[in-house]
């Protein structure tokens, strides 16, 4: 009974699609390759190329593992990105240290806004800065600039 159930091509196709769909919820970029193996075995069974449960299981294992080890690295880069996509420094602000900025709003409780290279930035400072003052970038915390009244 179990052997007849597994030789049915529909079971392999359903299993394949379920494995591929499961990859959307558990993104380890592994289940999709077993799904591809199951779909291929389902199609081979549908066309009568393989009939026995033993040959189907062997084909499933071989196709899935070849797909997994042969293409996983390539597909994982597509699905998760790579280090080249990440900025080289925190928020790409490594070159901003020492830059001159214009204070746009009075700093209240140590925070305000500055303009750097034509863009408005959130900023923090322990200095009392007023709109129109010139300040200098001394660092950053994420995308918030740390500025001071004097160049350090």
TrEMBL record:
Predominant subcellular localization, coarse grouping: membrane
Transmembrane segments: 12-41, 53-71
Top-level taxon of origin: Bacteria
Boundaries of every NfeD-like C-terminal domain copy: 97-147
UniProt key word Transit peptide: no
InterPro entries cross-referenced by the UniProt entry: Membrane_assoc_protease, NA-bd_OB-fold, NfeD-like_C
Family annotation (Pfam families): NfeD (PF01957)
Signal peptide: none
UniProt keyword terms in alphabetical order: Membrane, Transmembrane, Transmembrane helix
A single cellular component GO annotation: plasma membrane
Subcellular location: Membrane
Membrane-topology descriptor: Multi-pass membrane protein
Protein name in UniProt: NfeD-like C-terminal domain-containing protein
Organism: Isoalcanivorax pacificus W11-5
